[in-house]
TrEMBL record:
<dbReference type="InterPro" id="IPR028979">
    <property type="entry name" value="Ser_kin/Pase_Hpr-like_N_sf"/>
</dbReference>
<keyword id="KW-0418">Kinase</keyword>
<comment type="similarity">
    <text>Belongs to the HPrK/P family.</text>
</comment>
<feature type="binding site">
    <location>
        <position position="164"/>
    </location>
    <ligand>
        <name>Mg(2+)</name>
    </ligand>
</feature>
<dbReference type="InterPro" id="IPR011104">
    <property type="entry name" value="Hpr_kin/Pase_C"/>
</dbReference>
<keyword id="KW-0067">ATP-binding</keyword>
<keyword id="KW-0723">Serine/threonine-protein kinase</keyword>
<feature type="region of interest" description="Important for the catalytic mechanism of both phosphorylation and dephosphorylation">
    <location>
        <begin position="205"/>
        <end position="214"/>
    </location>
</feature>
<dbReference type="InterPro" id="IPR027417">
    <property type="entry name" value="P-loop_NTPase"/>
</dbReference>
<dbReference type="InterPro" id="IPR011126">
    <property type="entry name" value="Hpr_kin/Pase_Hpr_N"/>
</dbReference>
<dbReference type="GO" id="GO:0000155">
    <property type="term" value="F:phosphorelay sensor kinase activity"/>
</dbReference>
<feature type="binding site">
    <location>
        <position position="206"/>
    </location>
    <ligand>
        <name>Mg(2+)</name>
    </ligand>
</feature>
<feature type="active site">
    <location>
        <position position="247"/>
    </location>
</feature>
<feature type="binding site">
    <location>
        <begin position="157"/>
        <end position="164"/>
    </location>
    <ligand>
        <name>ATP</name>
    </ligand>
</feature>
<dbReference type="GO" id="GO:0000287">
    <property type="term" value="F:magnesium ion binding"/>
</dbReference>
<dbReference type="Pfam" id="PF02603">
    <property type="entry name" value="Hpr_kinase_N"/>
</dbReference>
<feature type="domain" description="HPr(Ser) kinase/phosphorylase N-terminal">
    <location>
        <begin position="5"/>
        <end position="131"/>
    </location>
</feature>
Length: 324
């Protein structure tokens, strides 16, 4: 089953959530499916129509103080009505002490009750960012991801075409390796793709005839980075004389990952072509395109303008001869 269990959320340390379990241990296997949270103030007041039980329910000082001020029988009825919806979990912020009634309901209905020392606004920001990274769609791609002048370039192509060798040459030129062979790609809101390396293969690269090398150990920490936004995909393909490749750069191809399309270039490979330099220039050209400067289109506009001027001069010359 996809998603994130409450047990995994409780064990998370790197996100700085600072969570502890207060009650409801039997429900730690419940799973979170969506990266959004909810504050159940209206549900505590008895209105549960718009409650989303699959979301984490965050209880701040306002919700807890209101719960304590309610008549005990009313509070018990409202809280049990909330718990009967089988919510994923409750999280109390600001290190507050929960009412006994809340602890008893969490135990009875096996709903994990957690607590964080963070202020509500800070915790909501942290948990939302963490859940977005863990729960948004992800996939893996066979390729190499490099950071070239701030442009995330995903090198694609069949096995043995020279992706790793090209990436190694780029590292020698001062660029950064993100991932080799297996690239883990996650989508981040609103519509951005980020790539990172496999946990086992991180910072390592396979070079045929040389074996596995550690880029960070060989070239230092500045030669690698943890993750990078993917801006451009480049597919290395074998050169074929009968094949037609884009000569002007006007053809705009796209490569789709997780429903998002990024620019794609196909570069033919054959002996004598400096693929590393071509890839580096492609990254520089992508930077210009993002700044609104498209070299191929500018050339096409100049060419069409020159052709129009030549046609006008030719027509004027013919008309002038006839008039004489």
């Amino acid at each position: 089953m996809a998603g994130l269990s409450i047990q995994e959320l409780l064990a998370e340390k790197e996100a700085g959530l600072d969570l502890e379990l207060l009650a409801g241990e039997r429900g730690l296997d419940k799973r979170i499916q969506v990266p959004r949270i909810q504050k159940p103030g209206l549900a505590i007041a008895g209105y549960t129509t718009n409650l989303h039980p699959d979301r984490i329910q965050v209880l701040g000082s306002t919700e807890l103080s209101y719960l304590e001020q309610l008549d005990p029988q009313v509070a018990d009825r409202h809280l049990r009505g909330l718990c009967e919806l089988d919510v994923s979990c409750f999280i109390i912020t600001k290190g507050q002490i929960p009412p006994r009634l809340l602890i008893d309901c969490a135990e009875q209905y096996a709903i994990p009750l957690l607590r964080s020392q963070h202020q509500s606004s800070r915790f909501i920001s942290l948990i939302t960012q963490f859940l977005e990274e863990r729960l948004l769609p992800s996939t893996t791609v066979h390729g190499v991801l490099v950071d070239i002048l701030g442009v995330g370039v995903l090198l694609l192509g069949k096995s043995g075409i020279g992706k790793s060798e090209c990436a190694l040459d780029l590292v020698l030129k001062g660029h950064k390796l993100v991932a080799d062979d297996v690239v883990k790609i996650r989508m981040k809101l609103p519509a951005v793709l980020f790539g990172e390396g496999n946990d086992l293969l991180h910072y390592h690269m396979e070079i045929r005839g040389l074996g596995i090398i550690n880029i960070r150990h060989l070239f230092g920490v500045a030669a690698t980075r943890e993750r990078k936004k993917i801006d451009l995909a480049i597919e290395l393909v074998e050169w074929r004389d009968e094949a037609e490749f884009d000569r002007l750069g006007l053809e705009e191809m796209r490569y789709e990952i997780l429903g998002l399309a990024i620019p794609l270039l196909k570069i033919p490979v054959r002996p004598g072509r400096n693929i590393t330099t071509i890839v580096e220039v492609a990254a520089r050209n992508q930077l210009l395109k993002e700044m609104g400067y498209h070299s191929a289109r500018e050339f096409q506009d100049r060419l069409e303008k020159r052709m129009a001027e030549t046609a006008w001069l030719h027509a004027h010359s013919i008309i002038g001869d006839n008039l004489e």
